[in-house]
Amino acid sequence: MAELQGEKVSEEERRRMIRMLDNFEKESRDLENEDYEGEQETEVVPDLAERLRDIDLDTASPDTILSVLTPTERKTFEAALKEGSNAIETVVGVWHPWWLVSDASSALIRDLEGVGEGQSERQMVSGSTRPPILPNIRPLETLTKAKPNTNIYFGVVDILCVYAFVSRYFNGDLLEDAIGTCQVVWDLSHTLSTNQPFAYEGIEEAVATKPTYGISHAALTLLLTDTTHLLSSQAHTLSALSHLHDVFAQASASRPPGASSTPSSSEPRIPRAMRTRAFTTSKKLYFYTSLFSEKDAAEFLSVAQAAVKRIADEEEKVGGEMKVERERVDAARRAHAGKEEQERTLIEEV
Questions:
Q1: Nearest-angstrom CA–CA distance, 43 and 38
Q2: What is d(CA 16, CA 14) in angstroms, rounded to the nearest whole number?
Q3: Buried b (16+ CB within 10 A) or exposed e, 260-275
Q4: Which of 165, 153, 158, 182 is nearest to 271 (CA)?
Q5: What is the rounded CA–CA span in Å between residue 166 and residue 33?
Q6: What pLDDT sits at residue 258?
Q7: Given a cut of 60, is residue 227 above it in pLDDT?
Q8: How many angstroms separate the CA atoms of 349 and 11, rounded?
Q9: Nearest Cα residue to 247 out of 302, 189, 319
Q10: Which DSSP symbol is given to 15?
Q11: H or E segment at 126?
Q12: What are 103-143's pLDDT values in tens digits?
């Protein structure tokens, strides 16, 4: 996860810390109740959210944030940190990409039939949820009278690669912070961040020009492999497109989900410019959903999958060669350092 998130991880790490603290708050209260069972509490400890209300999580130091924990909570929290990333994953939860689980359990997934009819239910496979396909998708001819330019199809490779990235970046929960998800998608997807009718002239270009927050070759190979899975069927492609559509549709609302319908100066409002841009992007995603619900889209997906897999294999080979070279250089440095240490020891002995 760290490789996929690169350097732009502050927001996600902040979110993870809040989840961890909230979880440890609940666990610590259970421990305190066991230790002091039968005794009446003399002080009521506010909820964690209440204690963090006056703290600016973007600028506050870790010590400031940890200072709001009770002694029991802090002791439990620090003990878990000493266990390393496994403890953090236990609290936050490990997300498994639905397209990997779905492919491994293909016998449990129904074939794509009657796209747009009865496709709104969630399909559960081995604990992983495949996002629902938008219901009643309008035929392409009702959206445009002109035949789509062939280059428009290449944009889906860009979109699916970015979808795989944000899914792993946000640990599978794209709707928790819809605005944040939209920002990352706009940063990475040329297809969805511009008003151009098409952005690429080929599959290779759609992949080669992709900015990925400076991730490693191994992480890039993983994303390309994810993309081949998402291209493996119309069902997978439409689920991914529909999921992103839901994110941008939510971001185009005047207020975040859960906000009161009654206007209030204290409630956050999504800026109009942001809502307008999100609405435009959701319309573009709906167009792609309609485009790839057409029967002849399956042939393009098959060709695109083979092309992306070839690129992924080449990237993996390059990454392997670079790893071998790094190991060779590291070994040479260690040998050189050991030789220098031996020379210093001999000089000291003389």
A1: 15
A2: 5
A3: eeeeeeeeeebeeeeb
A4: 182
A5: 40
A6: 54
A7: yes
A8: 55
A9: 189
A10: H
A11: none
A12: 655 544 444 444 444 443 334 333 468 899 999 999 999 99
